[in-house]
């Protein structure tokens, strides 16, 4: 008998044949017998896939040792559970957020050994990422395997958003229609009423907050999500009893309502399949999520960079090897008379040949050209900088009564933009903390309450007009708001989610830095997630203090793949928000709280189609002697200072409002600096390492010949914003600070 003992293969002989013949030998003594619904034929196929998965791992290990690939992490020991999951689910129908140990799942769903080895070598034709991601970061659009990342746990929230999107499209199939002229033109939508969204991780990852946030929402909303926990008892070197109170994740989560729970021996494909099928049945019936906790083994250390002998004694490792799923299935097949030793050897020979051939092909494959590096940071289809997004305001209607004003605040025109866009595009959903008018809808229906619609009332009336499927409150969990948006947008919805205060954006940082802007680039345009995240930002509030006054936009402009917008007035907010919604890239839309209802910058309603392209600055004030480059709430302060300079010193100051910070309008900067030869960069965030540093550095670098004076910055002090208004005034840049800087620079 050929027994597979679970060690990496030292070498594999190149094989001559190309075709994969059927296994010879004695097979299927009892062809009609099934095992928890699996036929003998399916079990033979399961064995083939499990062995194939292990052989690819072994091959990668060999290649890594030969320095032909650069990283290896194996799925060894997890194969039985994952082949069972692959057999229970439908590729291209269900959705998959798989983690790095899910090689056997990916193979069962239809990925090929060559696909995997092309990724391992980092080939141009790596179908998962075009040579950008480490091996075992699965992605395949046709199979609905959504690009995965390396951070453990962030995928859970994407699965929630994906499931919500599937449900939304099932309830509102008209929303799935393509429409020309905006992101929908490039976003195909497929959905099925009984689809399952699979998401997996190891047991260590269940320590992440994102796992708990996702369980909370899946359970509460009865979402069709299959949670798969592959418990190999270790997270690198940390054992499960250190990760999880009581040492068993099933016990901890058992109180969540609506979930069907299963705990199984994940080294046994038959038991695993039965457990997964029961969970899948519950999910497809619309009863809620399933949770399968499979106990597996990890015979190859965490990764090739880890040596588990440093923290696991030999006795423990030997015990584990006795549970090797490949050996177990092999013995099962023989015992049950499904396949004999000859048949098994035949399968193993075929698999070895296939892997050898794929490996040879991958090693000969062309590498990615350096010219591809910047491809797919943003949408290749729709450029929000282009003239296509330039739609001037419609003419303002005459005031109803003489003397009455038609001017609207920034808050009004953001609200109006959301309403107009929601009427136009049924794929838009709005959610966040407190954004609904009233979660207990009956109060609205009975007219017992007026409704809230956001702590700043920016989403007021939206739930009443568009209903709770499209406008709803989220749990108080910022990572979840952004993570769910990513899952929704990946499926084709357009979430316009709200983070209530910029000060509380940080729990979502992982999603904003490592996921949202990377989906397109890391999948080589396989997936995209053009979500809009609106955030109330900034100080000058008198009493906002530290945690209601923060800026910090620079941290986000530092992220490739994310558009960052920061309007200073009502009309721009309206036109830029519409561009954000209609475009095909993820956008962080920063709304200054102090500007929401200012008298400054009010404007008439510009109609339902007004758009401003990104990366086009506005000359807020023409001038000849000195330039101020700024944005947000510093714009009105700079204008005030400029007027005073004119009044008191006849010095004419030009004020440039950047409007969008990434991309930004370098041409406008160059134009004004070449004209006035003196420049201040002004911003509300702390001075050091702020947004102005980049602009000032580039001016010094590229416009040195045009400068008659050093580039100056005016910004907040390098501290936090204090509560007491006397301190706040001192800390944040005021019109007088700008005036002093202008005076000083003009005399340089
Ligand atoms: C957020 C995050 N923190 C740390 C890591 C480094 N890391 C990679 S895998 C891993 C252990 C994961 O353990 P577990 O979830 O049990 O899965 P297993 O690898 O055992 O299958 C760690 C700490 C990471 N990738 N992401």
Map the helices and strands.
Elements: E1 34-35, E2 38-39, H1 40-65, H2 79-88, E3 95-97, H3 103-109, H4 113-121, H5 155-171, E4 197-202, H6 209-221, E5 225-231, E6 234-235, E7 238-239, H7 240-243, H8 249-253, E8 260-265, H9 269-284, E9 290-295, H10 314-321, H11 325-335, H12 341-364, H13 410-424, E10 428-432, H14 441-445, H15 462-466, E11 471-473, H16 478-491, E12 494-499, H17 509-514, H18 519-522, E13 532-537, H19 553-557, E14 563-565, H20 570-582, E15 587-592, E16 618-621, E17 626-630, H21 634-649, E18 653-657, E19 660-662, H22 666-676, E20 679-686, H23 691-702, E21 712-716, H24 725-731, H25 735-746
Parallel strand pairs: 3-4, 4-5, 5-9, 8-9, 10-11, 10-12, 12-13, 13-15, 14-15, 17-18, 17-20, 20-21
Antiparallel strand pairs: 1-2, 6-7, 14-19, 16-18
The structure holds thiamine diphosphate.
Summarize the structure.
The protein has about 750 residues and is of the alpha/beta class.
Describe, in plain words, how this protein is organized in 3D.
This protein has 748 residues and is an alpha/beta fold. Helix content is 37%, strand content 13%. It is built from 25 helices and 21 strands. The strands form five sheets. A seven-stranded mixed β-sheet has the order 11-10-12-13-15-14-19, sandwiched between helices. A five-stranded parallel β-sheet has the order 3-4-5-9-8, sandwiched between helices. Helix 1 (40-65) packs across helix 3. 55% of the residues are buried. The structure holds thiamine diphosphate. Thiamine diphosphate is lined by residues 101, 150-152, 201-205, 230, 232, 234-236, 302.
